[in-house]
Amino acid sequence: MYQLLPSFVLAFHGCDREVGEAVLAGEQISPSVNDYDWLGEGAYFWENSPDRALSYAQRIKENKRGKGSIKDPFVVGAIIDPGLCLNLTDEGALLELGEAYQLLAENNDLLPENRNGFPGDTDNLKRFLDCAVFQSLHSARELVGLEPYQSVRSPFLEGPELYPGTFFRQETHIQLCVRDINNIKGYFRPLKMDGSLFQH
Questions:
Q1: What distances in angstroms separate CA 54 from CA 67, 73, 93, 190, 200, one per listed residue?
Q2: What was the pLDDT predicted at 118?
Q3: What is the crossing angle of helices 128-143 and 91-106, to 10°?
Q4: Which of 11, 83, 136, 158 is the most buried (most CB within 10 A)?
Q5: Which residues of the chain are under the pLDDT cut of 70?
Q6: CA 14, CA 16: separation in Å to the nearest integer?
Q7: What is the DSSP string of 68-110?
Q8: Burial readout 75-88 (b: 16 or more C-beta within 10 A, e: otherwise)
């Protein structure tokens, strides 16, 4: 079992203003079920980074990617209990993910591939292969009667080099995919450092 500590984390969801305001008014966030989602199916958040959530929403607006195209970039904050978490900063979790890939490869002659999401995308934002591996992992756990993961957490190196010769990237982040929506304990409207409302 891979448990996040502390018990609750603050995370941020980049979305369209209409969607965000509806969530703040009491609607639940809808899980993403795209076959290219980086960590499989679930509701996606940027851990501790409202700025990154906003820049993501702005990128979606610019590139009009996927069903949930964004007209007015917006950020919603959430209080999340990761619960039983597949935490990919843990060696055991990475080994389990690798085993899920092997299982997927053994049962499929042709595997999906990660691909560019838009012209100039160097990070293969459409993660068809990764999504299939995560879904295979969850299906295998269900098949053998193991408790389902309620969330998946992973760091990602993304974007251009921060400076020449480094492995640091300009858009490095930690992403949290909440598979059990009941683990989202509340929503809030984020504030900027100056105390003003965090919105575009």
A1: 18, 7, 29, 11, 8
A2: 77
A3: 90
A4: 11
A5: 1-6, 64-68, 193-200
A6: 7
A7: S--SSEEEEEEEE---BEEETTSHHHHHHHHHHHHHHHHT-SS
A8: bbbbebbbbbbbbb
pLDDT value of position 121:
81
3 state SS for 118-131 = CCCCCCCCEEHHHH
In the block, residue with structure tokens 């459409």: 126
Separation of alpha carbons 179 and 149, rounded Å: 7
Q: Extract the tokens encoding 79.
A: 């209080």
Q: Which residues pair with 73 in a beta bridge?
A: 16
For the beta sheet containing 43-47, the strands, ordered from the edge strand earlier in sequence to the opposite edge, are: 85-87, 151-156, 173-178, 43-47, 9-16, 73-80, 184-188
H or E stretch covering 24: helix 17-24
Q: What is the end-to-end Cα distance of the chain in Å, rounded?
A: 39
Q: For residues 94 and 130, is the Cβ–Cβ distance under 8 A? A: no
Strands 151-156 and 85-87 turn out to be parallel
